[in-house]
Design brief:
Strand order of the largest sheet: 1-2
CATH architecture of the largest domain: Orthogonal Bundle
Number of strands: 4
Number of helices: 14
Number of domains: 2
CATH topology of the largest domain: Fic-like fold
Order of helices and strands: HHHHHEEHHHHHHHHHEE
Shape: globular
Helix content: 55-70%
Largest sheet: 2 strands, antiparallel
Strand content: under 5%
Radius of gyration: 23 Å
CATH superfamily of the largest domain: Fido-like domain
Amino acid sequence: MEEYNWQQKDWTNFRFSLENAESDLLLFSEKTGRVSGMLEGLPEETRQDVVIDIILAEALKTSEIEGEYLSRRDVLSSIRKNLGLHVSPGQIRDKSAAGLGELMIDLRQSFNEPLTKEKLFFWHTLLLRENKRLEVGQWRTHEEPMQVISGAMGKEKIHFEAPPSTQVPREMKTFIRWFNETAPGGIQEIKSAPVRSAIVHLYFESIHPFEDGNGRIGRALAEKALSQTIGRPVILSLSRTIEAKKKDYYAALEKAQRSSEVTGWITYFVKLALDAQIEAEEQINFTLKKTMFFDKYKDRLNERQLIVIKRMLDEGTKGFEGGMNARKYVGITKTSKATATRDMQYLLEIGAFILVGKGGRSTSYQINIM
């Protein structure tokens, strides 16, 4: 029985209709142009902050999708280091975070280059060089089936089984050639960036060529495809949007891996890319508001207040979950409850904080960044 796409005679002959995706594709194009214009209009330092925030979100969330939670500080330090910004020597303790940061910057800086086997092996090595149980920088070779499984032992559900390891070198040679031929100017050029990105991701994940790291590299390839087709490094985080509704992502992917008719997957992924672009626009507005906030208040804040405000702003556009209260303030600054209460009252008086929870222990605050 031909259960999976790669087992079928029409494998790699991806067929789809864009009828249900046309409005989202148009809106994606409009949003992409708008985000590009917004970014160009920002001061250089603010523009750099936006780019770093987007890259950082992508790096952290692509790992969180796989259940790996890296040090935010170390990933950020690695990104800044690989962008040529000042980082103190020895600051990056988490080597996995260092490798992921390096991959994110290499992806951004080499987006326009053709894809090669060597590049994929390089990314794999960056991601997993600290994993001593794996052979990194090579295709998988194990004889047992490569399966995507969920459920407790004895009650496992097989969601997908990839081609045998013996087929991987041939499948990946075909994939790499197809990737480059569908790029701008290629003989099979796919002109729509989200459509090409959708097929790239599905195609790669269906081969599952590595023993580990396939999800993270597959999402990096989706971003590379977007950037190549648009003609500049894309300003969005697909992984942040995927992670917010992870079950939907896996359900759509599992369904798409059963057939070469992929209309449903394309429709899903185009919406995903649009949502990611909308979120990036919100991120730019948020970064601009942060800059204005610090311009207004930086000379009126003590060191404790700065630490707390920066920590709250790290949570991004959705705000600090549950608001800031005395207990959290003490935990962050290691100060007394009385000092914490005084600090927060002062921040409320000058307009830096707004009250969101009233009365006794439920008193909490958010940053007034509107």
